[in-house]
Specification:
Distance between the termini: 31 Å
Order of helices and strands: HHHHHHHHHHHH
Helix content: over 70%
Structural class: mainly alpha
Number of helices: 12
Number of strands: 0
Strand content: under 5%
Oligomer: single chain
Length: 319
């Protein structure tokens, strides 16, 4: 228990430290630019209000008009059925661009209820699909290694090959999406790449939102479908990758013994393992990786299971 508490404290300290370091870097990168922009905007505000004799009240009304006009002029009308599907997608996936928000009290009440039910449902779906995808990739790599005649054909869901393939899939997805959005939205490739990454990671700043600017051209229904498909497919890939990385972090932070102590103790000599031709190394690793798949839902229960399994297996081997 003390070891578990220590690891939890260390992870918390690392996370908080990472947050503070990131905040310091963001402040260093953006502070001067923001101050310059604020200064220029203040000068422009004072110049315009003085030149055209505009009151502060009129300025506020004009700003409200510009904000509303952006949604009115958007190609995908925010509360049409297609626009509502787009909004509902950003709600349950926790992207939350902020370009569309309910204005009525009844809409806000329903939004809270809808999100409370939809977010766990969507996260569970993406997590489940990600786990199935990892299992499929591990199975495919096992078959490839078997066809190549390799002696050790075991591949777990958190193996380096699976993680690297998942990361590669994520990069390909974001790069492909960036190409599509740069074509339709007339953004630069870098801006499109930035939009895709912010979207599939569910950060959703809202500084760039697809289907909003119709000045260049009218978007067709195909592009609306592509945008929604990219969101769901991208979140599935990212869910798979994040599941892999989370399992590896849990494995690294909760292992009681070093990896070299868990493997390399020689093959199991019990009758059952001899009949199956299964090595002790592979059985422990498979059990260990399987237990950590349920860690996300059962907290630290798998460590007890692993310890019990290890003790029973050693006892059986000694008989």
């Amino acid at each position: 228990m003390k070891t578990q508490n220590l690891r939890t404290i260390l992870l918390t300290v690392c996370c908080v430290s990472y947050l503070l370091v990131g905040a310091a870097i963001f402040s260093a990168l953006e502070y001067d630019e923001d101050q310059e922009m604020r200064k220029n905007m203040t000068i422009l505000h004072n110049t315009l209000t003085k030149k055209y004799n505009i009151s502060e009240e009129d300025v506020k009304k004009w700003l409200q008009y510009l904000d509303s006009k952006a949604n009115i002029d958007a190609d995908l009308y925010q509360w049409s059925f297609a626009g509502s599907v787009y909004f509902a997608t950003t709600v349950i996936t926790t992207i939350g661009y902020g370009h569309t928000v309910p204005k009525t009290d009844r809409g806000k009440i329903f939004c809270m209820i809808y999100a409370a039910v939809g977010i766990p449902l969507a996260l569970t779906m993406f997590q489940s699909i990600g786990e199935r995808l990892n299992t499929f990739l591990a199975h495919m790599f096992r078959r490839v290694k078997k066809k190549l005649g390799m002696k050790n054909t075991e591949v777990s869901n958190t193996a380096n090959l699976v993680v690297l393939f998942g990361l590669l899939s994520m990069v390909v997805t974001v790069c492909s999406g960036a190409f599509i959005f740069s074509h339709y939205e007339k953004w630069s490739y870098f801006k499109s790449f930035y939009y895709c990454f912010i979207t599939v990671t569910t950060i959703g700043f809202g500084d760039y939102v697809a289907l909003q600017d119709s000045r260049e051209q009218r978007f067709d229904d195909t592009y609306v479908g592509i945008s929604l498909l990219f969101i769901f497919f991208g979140l599935t890939i990212v869910g798979s990758v994040m599941n892999q990385l989370a399992l590896r972090l849990l494995t690294a932070s909760q292992t009681k013994e070093p990896a070299e102590n868990l493997i390399g103790e020689g093959p199991c000599v019990c009758e059952k393992c001899s009949r199956l031709g299964t090595s002790r190394d592979s059985m422990i690793f498979d059990r260990y990786s399987t237990d950590y798949t349920t860690t996300l839902l059962k907290n630290f229960e798998e460590e007890i299971t692993f310890t019990t399994y290890k003790g029973l297996h050693r006892k059986r081997a000694s008989i």
